[in-house]
């Protein structure tokens, strides 16, 4: 497998016998080079001694030597400075576009590496590397979790930048879209993002002082002011209380004024949702946040403590929704505020990434540091991913650790990217050890 050959070369996990070229010259790998994940040779700037000559250049790796020609490298000038062609099988002699023969070396994957890698891929217990985690050093685990946390923040930064582009360069609008997406709390996240992108915030800004109009626009753009979205058994109650009709009439006027097009109401998911998580309630909370000017980028950037951030996002609903979960769906009257756990999740998934992304955008390191500080201050969320890693022996002390472990599962474990994982590296390098899964 070529991917495993790359791994063995990168980490110099060579078999315990001399390395030689096909013509018998000894090979000493001083520096395996920088792994290239883009077009061009696989490793840049390697330092290799072949015979008595020290070479500095690029290395190309293939499962079979004939892949050199199959991939067209013999006609590509980028491969003219390859100093060594490393292969699992030698079934051809590689040549450059100038006709020069390249030094070639057959690289055998040590049996223990193949055995351990196959075990990782075949394991039915999750995560497959669980057996070695208690034996790993605290320093190694801490450094890997720190890298994963940063990697996750980088991914969220890229997502925010894509929203900025979708919002025609407006960070304010992208901030609202990010906040809205996270109000979906996973299940309705995608629907909330599409909903937020459908609202022309700049156009409706002068209606901001009228909470009823904002609520009408928000619910209307969600497609929830169509009577067909109200369950049949609740339609009479929805029409009887009059609030639905008032919102519907107001939205009809504002829709015409701003040429609004609602999203498809079928995007919303209700199955197995607790009533307090129904889109109607979340949208009503967002309407209040927006009307009270607590959902903008400038307000979020002013939050210097986790407490301030949670207070900023802690919104209740209008009187109608205090006594309803949906149109015509009555409930015991109460404020319907977000729980402390929900507010902490919003800080982790909204304020922290926005601070980090905007800090990068304006080159203000203090915002990035504040974002990381918030993650260390907040306790780790209690979800199945965190519990899984705790059961394996990993210490999870704060929200930053939890974010790192979510990244580890989503981007490495689920995708079987053990060769890119530092824990996977520790697992594979255990020479001649019997590892039980």
Automatic annotation (TrEMBL):
A Pfam family reported for this protein in Swiss-Prot or TrEMBL: DUF2851
Highest rank taxon of the organism: Bacteria
Protein name, UniProt field: DUF2851 domain-containing protein
Organism from which the protein derives: Segatella maculosa OT 289
